[in-house]
Amino acid sequence: MPIKILKPNNAGRRGISVVDRSGVVTTQKPLKALTHGKLRLSGRNARGVITARHRGGGAKQNWRTIDLKQTKLGIPALVSSIEYDPNRSAYIALVVYSDGTKSYILAPDSLKVGDKIVSNVNTKIKLGNRLILKNIPTGIAIYNIELQPGRGGQIVRTAGSSAMILGFDKGFAQIKLPSGEVRLIPESCSASIGRVSNPDYGNIRIGKAGRMRHMGHRPKVRGKAMNPVDHPHGGGEGNSPIGLKHPKTPTGKPTKGYKTRSRTKSNNYIIKPRTIKRKK
Q: Considering the entire predicted model, what is its pTM?
């Protein structure tokens, strides 16, 4: 999946690069039975209050129903097609089980049409197969990992990502996540073998503002460019500083280093915190 750099025929195409999906994606139309309309929330919660700023608009998208649990244990499935999904960075695979059931799964890297996969408590260590953590050897790349047994994959689902089992201790597996964090996950949870597809997604250059609008991202405005009624950094004459000892969010909370993670989360299962990558 090489990165394709577009020719600078005009200002809008200069600096743009895309992932060449011609050799990977095998069909353009999704299976109608596994798709439905997607509700536009534009960053608003159930009360209509904006909780995530700078979202709205974008191209129309249909939601693909992805089977993150893969509960058809012991039934082999044949990969029918590899498809593009506008709702995620990774590709998805349409699999057909031996009983005739069809479903979408997250496609691992290098999975091809015609490959056979199976999900079971214990099965062969093969690309695309899914089994519980207790039966996966250490050092094997895994993805789509459950945090609670039977809940379905919740972590390591983005394009090109994978985790690794470091060891086992008292009914838990020590998993090293892509962020560098090492955490305990019950060994009865399931995970898929391999690395998530589309590893070149992180190398894409957006190139122009219109492409971000197509993705549903609206423009971001600096707080110091606003009025005091709109942001704590607003106001002043000309190009003035923020006028505060520490920068703040639009709601007045400290930012840049202020910990916002809830204490009720599963902090007790974290052995080593994630590695913070600082910009040079």
A: 0.89
